[in-house]
Each structure stands twice: as C-alpha cells, then as structure tokens.
C-alpha cells in the first residue's frame, strides 16, 4: 500500500489512452507533468518527515540499548559486591529497557520499510516525470510541425499550378480587349480623316465647277 495519497488525475497507466483521444496532446501532457510535480513535492515532504521520524525511533532504540547494557553491568557489579537487592533493582530496570527496545525496534523497522517504500515511489515518480517530459518535447515538435504545415497549406492553397492557365487566360482576354479598343479607335480616326479628305475633294470639285460656270458666263457677256 502506498504511504501517501496520490493527487494525480492522470497516471502513466491512463496517459497513453488519453493521448490517443486528445486533440491537444501537449496540453494533456503538461497537465500530467504539473500533477506529477505536485505529487513529487508531496512525496519529498513526506520523505523528509519519515526520515526524521525514523531517525528519532532509531535514537530511542539506541538509547534504550545503552541503558539496558548499563543496568546489566550494574547488576553484575552488585552481585560481585554481594548486593543482591541492588542487583535485582538493576535487572528490573534492565527488563523495562528490554521491553522498550522491542517496542521501538518494531516501530523503527516499520518506519524504515515505509521510508524505503517512499524512496522507491519517489524515484518512480521522478523517472515517470523525465520519461513523460521527453515525450512532451517529441509531441510538441510534432504539433509545431503540423501547425507550420497547416499554415503553409493555407498560403499555398491560392497558388496552385491549376490556377496559372486561368490567370493568363484572364490576362489574354484583357490585353485582347485593349487591342480591340485601340484598333477601333484607330479605324474611327482613319474613317474621320477619309471623310474629311472626301469632303475636301467634293468641295474643291464644286468650286472648280462654279469657277468654270462664272468664266463661261463672263465669256457669254463679252460676246454680246
């Protein structure tokens, strides 16, 4: 059983499954990393507390062992001195320390096992964090590649080769219209000039005819 409460909504066991369903894997991984950092911080805090508690239990065992050995030596000295009553008192106190050693040794062993378990879990959490962080870098690179590809596709969507003939067809039509307009204007000007020339010729002919008529009239008067 874990010695501390898990705080993550996402674990490595469920991360892969969620990644397959996620539209934004980087965001999901970031959530996992945040929760894992919180759990690592909690585990480190608990590890510190467990280490202090284990150290205190070890101190109690060592202290009781020292006192038990001391009382046993005192009992031996009392027996050698013929002080059996004092020897019994020392042995009674030694027995109390024996009981304390047994009790605290059991607590110390349990605490030491929990501390080791916590260290293993903390190591596992840090390993998970590093592995998933590496995955995060990989998925971030993939998402960035996809984003840039989409932007490139958007920019290139209006510049396909199939649009080149259409573009030149429109240009050809426009140039043809301009050429037609220029030819029409030139033809109109030419027609106007021809009309002027023709009109001038008609006027000149009429003048010559009038001039001849007047000359003929003068000749006729002269003959009279």
UniProtKB/TrEMBL annotation:
Keyword RNA-binding among UniProt keywords: no
Keyword field: Coiled coil
Domain of life: Bacteria
One Pfam family hit: PspA_IM30
Signal peptide (UniProt feature, chain positions): none
Ranges in coiled-coil conformation: 101-135, 168-224
UniProt keyword Coiled coil present: yes
Similarity section: Belongs to the PspA/Vipp/IM30 family.
Identification of the protein by name: PspA/IM30 family protein
């Amino acid at each position: 059983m874990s010695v501390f409460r898990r705080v993550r909504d996402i674990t490595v066991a469920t991360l892969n499954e969620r990644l397959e369903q996620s539209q934004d894997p980087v965001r999901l991984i970031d959530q996992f990393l945040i929760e894992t950092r919180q759990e690592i911080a909690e585990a480190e805090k608990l590890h510190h507390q467990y280490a202090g508690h284990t150290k205190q239990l070890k101190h109690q065992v060592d202290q009781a062992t020292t006192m038990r050995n001391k009382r046993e030596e005192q009992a031996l000295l009392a027996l050698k001195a013929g002080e059996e009553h004092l020897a019994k008192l020392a042995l009674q106190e030694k027995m109390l320390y024996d009981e304390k050693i047994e009790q605290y040794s059991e607590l110390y062993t349990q605490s030491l096992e929990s501390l080791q378990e916590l260290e293993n879990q903390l190591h596992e959490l840090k390993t998970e964090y590093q592995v998933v962080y590496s995955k995060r870098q990989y998925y971030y690179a993939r998402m960035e590649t996809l984003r840039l590809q989409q932007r490139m596709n958007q920019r290139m969507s209006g510049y396909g080769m199939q649009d080149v003939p259409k573009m030149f067809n429109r240009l050809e039509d426009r140039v043809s219209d301009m050429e037609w307009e220029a030819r029409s204007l030139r033809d109109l000007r030419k027609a106007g000039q021809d009309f002027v020339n023709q009109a001038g010729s008609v006027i000149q002919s009429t003048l010559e005819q009038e001039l001849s008529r007047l000359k003929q009239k003068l000749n006729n008067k002269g003959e009279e």
